[in-house]
Amino acid sequence: MSALLEVVGVSKSFGEIAAVDNLSLSVGGNEFFALLGPSGCGKTTLLRMIAGFERPDQGRILLDGIDITGIKANKRPINLMFQSYALFPHMTVFANVAYGLEMEGLRGAELAKRVDAVLELVQLSALAKRKPAQLSGGQKQRVALARALVKRPKLLLLDEPLGALDKKLREQMQIELKRLQQETGIAFLVVTHDQEEALTMADRIALLRAGRIAQLGEPRALYERPNSRFVADFIGQMNFLEGMRVAEGFAVPGLGLFNAANLDDLPLGAAGALAVRPERIAVQDTEVAGAIAAEVEGLAYLGQDLILHLRLDGHDRPVVARVHAANPITMHVARGSRLWCGWSPANSLILSE
Amino acid sequence: MSRNPIQAWLSTHLFLVYVFLYGPILVLVALSFNRSGMPNVWTGLSLEWYGKLFANEKIISSVGNSLFIAAVATVISTVIGTLLAMGLEERRPRVATEALIAAPMIIPDIVMAISLLSFYSLIKLTLGAHSVILSHSAFMISFVCAVVRTRFKHFDRSIIEASIDLGASEFTTFRRVTLPVIAPGVIAAALLGFTLSFDEFIISYFTSGPSSASVTFPMQIYAMIRFGVTPDVNAVATIVMLVSFFLIFLSQRINREVEA
Amino acid sequence: MIVSRRIVLTGPGIAWIMLLLVIPCALLLVNSFFERGIYGGIDYIFTFENYVRAVDPLYAEIFWNSARVAGITTLISLALGYPAAYCIALMPKRRQMAFLILVMLPLWSNYLIRTYAWIVLLNGEGLINRSLIGLGLIDAPLPLLYNDFAIITGLTYAYVPFMILALFSSISKLAPELREASTDLGASPLMTFRRVTLPLTLPGIAAGSVFVFVLSIGNFVTPDLLGGGKRTMIGNLIYDQFLTARDWPFGSAIAAIVIGVMMALLTIQAVLVNRRDREEKIA
C-alpha cells in the first residue's frame, strides 16, 4: 500500500500548550484510518491541519508525495465532514451537495448527475428538496457525508462522524461508513474518542495521547498487544496485577509466579503489571489445580455476559471477569460464592509503562 | 394541588396587565372612529377624522420628513451595525467594547439629545434633516448590531469552514453562505431601526433646527397633543400603531422563517 | 490577518459611536465646568459654580422629586411585572414567545401616542372620570391628570414591559426542579418563593429595576405631557436649561449628574450579577 497522506514531524501549539507534538504518520490510498484518543489529545488539531484550517508550527504534510502544508483549505483535494455537520441551513439537501461541485465550475446536467448519484449512494434521493432543519440527525449526517464525497476527494476527513447519533443508529452507521469507504475507494481518516467505533471501522488506528502517538496499528494489535497501560486501559477493559520480573517468571505479591506472552521482553528486577482482559479470565466453581481461589464481591448482569468482581485470595485489589451467559456457573453464582479462576499465559501481557 | 389557586391568581394578574397595556391603545382606536371625536359622547361610527388627517398638510409633510430621515438613517446604521456585529463575532469582545456598544441603547434620550446639540453647535454644523439622520444613526447602530448578533448566536461557524473546505473563496463564502444565513436578522434589524427612527422624538426635537423640512412626524404629534385632547390625533395614533405593529410583526416573521 | 479583518468590520461602528456618543458626552462634561455666556453661549472660564448650584435646595428638590417618582414607578412596575413574568415563565415553552411578544408590542408603538392615550383616559372629562361618575361612585371628577399620579401612571405604563422582559429572562432560567425540590423538602409555596425563587431571581429584579429607574428619572415627555409642567423633573429641568433659559453649562452639569447616577446604578447591578454568577459557578 503506497502512502497517500504523509504527516512528517508535525507540531502545533496554542500558547504554552503543545496540541500536536512532533507527530508523524502515513495513511494508505484505500485505507480506513482512525485517530483515536481522549479529548484534548490533539486529534482534532491534527485533523484541522490536514484539512488546511490550521498551519503546523513545524513539519510537513504531503499528499501523494506533494507538500501541501502551505496550500489553503479550499485548494486541497481533501474534504472534511464536520462534527456538527455544518450543513448550510438556507439550502436544500441538493443545493448543499451541489455547492462543492459548483465551486469547481460544474453546472447543469453534469452537476445534477453527480449530485443524484451521490444522493443515491447515501440513500437520500427522496429527500433532495428538503432543508436541513427538516431532517433527522442520521439524515443530516448522511447529507454531510454526501456533500464531502461528491467532490471525489483523495482523502475524506471525518470529525467525530457518529458523535451526535444515538447508540442504535451509531452501530448501523459504523457498518454503513465502512461500506461507503469500500465502495468509493476513497481513503477515510476518522477522528473519534470512541474506541468501539475505531475498532469496528478502521483498518488501522493511531491512538493519541498528549499530542503524540501512543500506539499505531491494526485494531487487533492494539487490543491484543497494547504497548502501555494507557493503551490497554483506553481500548477495552483491563485488569492490572502489580508485580516484578524475577528469574522464574513474573511475581505478583500474594498470588505467586506468572508467565506471560512477553515475559522475556522484561529485564530482571523490573516492576510492571500483569495485564489480563476480563473476558480472558476463565472462571469455574470447582477447584482445579493451579487455579486461584476467589470470592465474588459483586456482580452485574448484562444479558449476554455476566460481570464478576472477584477478590482473589491473597490479593487486595479486586479483579473483573467477564463470563459468557453460556457458562453454567452463571445460573447460580451470587455474592459470596467461592470460585476458581485462571488464564493462559498467552492471554496475558506484562506492561511496564 | 395547592398550586391551583396560585396559578389562577397569576393568570388573572397577567390578564389584567394585558388589559393595562392594551386598554389605552384600544380606547384610542375606538375613539378614532367616533364621529364626535370626544371620549365622552359616542355619536356613531365615522371615518371623518381619517379624512381630515389626510387633508392636514402639516401632518402629511411631517410624515414625509420622517420617512426620509428614517430611510437614510436605516441604510447607514444597517450597513455599519451589521459589519460591527460580524466583527464582534470573530472573537469575544472586551467588556469595555460591549459597554460602548450598549451605551446608545441605555443612555437617557434627553442626555443624548443635549450632548449632540452641544457637539453640533461646537463643530458649527447647521441643523436640519441631516443632523437628525446622524443623531438617529448613532443609537440605531447599537440596536441593529444587537439584533444581528442574536442571529449569529444560532449561527454554526463551522459552515463557513465547510464552504471553504468545499472549495469556495472567502468572498464567495460571504456571498453564498454568511450573508444569506444572517439576512433575516439584518432585515429584522433594519425594520426595527426604521421603526425606532420613525418614532423618535426627543433627539429629533433638539437636533432638527428651525427648518420645516426637518419637522418630524413625532414632533408634529407633540405639537398637537401638548394642548390636551385633540380628536384628529386618535386617527393618527391608530394608523401609526397599525403600521408599527405590522413592521414588527414582519421583522419577527422574517427572522424566524429560516430557523423553521 | 484576523486582527486587521476585525478592525475593518468593527472600525466604522466603533468610530461612529465614539464620534456621536462618547465625544458629545465628554463635551457635555467639559461644558459643565464653564460659565454661561451673557447671550446664552458658553464662556470658557473654568468654574465649579454649576455643580454648586445643582445642590441648591431649589434644584435638590427637583432631583429628590424625580428620584421619588422614578422610585415609585419602579416599585409599581416590579409589583405588576413580577407575577406577570412568573406566570409567563410557568407556561410551556412554545406559548411563552407569543405572550412575550404581546408584552413587547406596545413598546413599538409611538411613545407620544401611548402617553397621549392617558391624557384621554385621565382628564376631567376623560373616560375614567366619566365612568366613575356614571357608576355613581363619585360626584365630581377626580384630579387624575397633571399631577404625580398621572406621571407615575404614564411612566409605569411605558416601562413595565421592560421590567417584565428582564424578570422573565431571570425567572425562566430557574430550573423548575429547584422549586419542586424545595416543596419536596417540606417548604410551603410562600416559603419556596421567599427562600428559593426570590433570591435566585434577584439579578433580574436588579436589572429590571435599574432599567425602569434610569428611564424614568431622565424622562422628559411624560412629566411634560401628563404633569402639565406643574411638577418639574430632571428631564424638564435639562430641557429648560437648553431650550428656554439657554444656560447650557448648568444644563450640562445636571445631565452629567444624571449620567453619574446612572453609571453608578449600572455598576452596582453589574457587580451584583457578576458576584452571583461566580457563586453559581463555584456551586
Give a written overview of the molecule.
Chain A has two domains: 3-229, Rossmann fold; 237-351, Nucleic acid-binding proteins (OB fold (Dihydrolipoamide Acetyltransferase, E2P), Beta Barrel), CATH 2.40.50.140. Chain A is α+β, with helices and mostly antiparallel strands. Chain A is 24% helix and 34% strand. In chain A, the strands form four sheets. Chain A has a six-stranded mixed β-sheet with strand order 6-7-8-3-9-10, sandwiched between helices. In chain A, strands 13-12-11-14-20 form a five-stranded antiparallel β-sheet, with no helix packed on it. A five-stranded antiparallel β-sheet of chain A has the order 15-19-16-17-18, with no helix packed on it. Chain B has a single domain (56-257), classed as Orthogonal Bundle (MetI-like fold). Chain B has helices spanning 3-32, 48-55, 57-90, 95-106, 109-122, 129-153, 158-165, 170-199, 202-207, 217-225, 231-257. In chain B, helix 3 (57-90) packs across helix 10, helix 4 (95-106) packs across helix 6 (129-153) and helix 8 (170-199) packs antiparallel against helix 11. The mean pLDDT of chain B is 84. Chain C is mostly helical and 283 residues long. Chain C has a single domain (52-282), classed as Orthogonal Bundle (MetI-like fold), CATH 1.10.3720.10. Chain C is 76% helix and 3% strand. Chain C has helices at residues 2-31, 49-54, 57-90, 93-104, 111-122, 127-134, 148-171, 176-184, 189-200, 202-217, 221-226, 234-244, 248-282, and strands spanning 34-36, 42-46. Chain C has a two-stranded antiparallel ribbon with strand order 1-2. In chain C, helix 1 (2-31) crosses helix 13 and helix 8 runs antiparallel to helix 9 (189-200). The radius of gyration of chain C is 23 Å and the shape is globular. The mean pLDDT of chain C is 83. At the B-C interface, helix 1, helix 3, helix 4, helix 5 and helix 6 of B face helix 1, helix 3, helix 4, helix 5 and helix 7 of C.
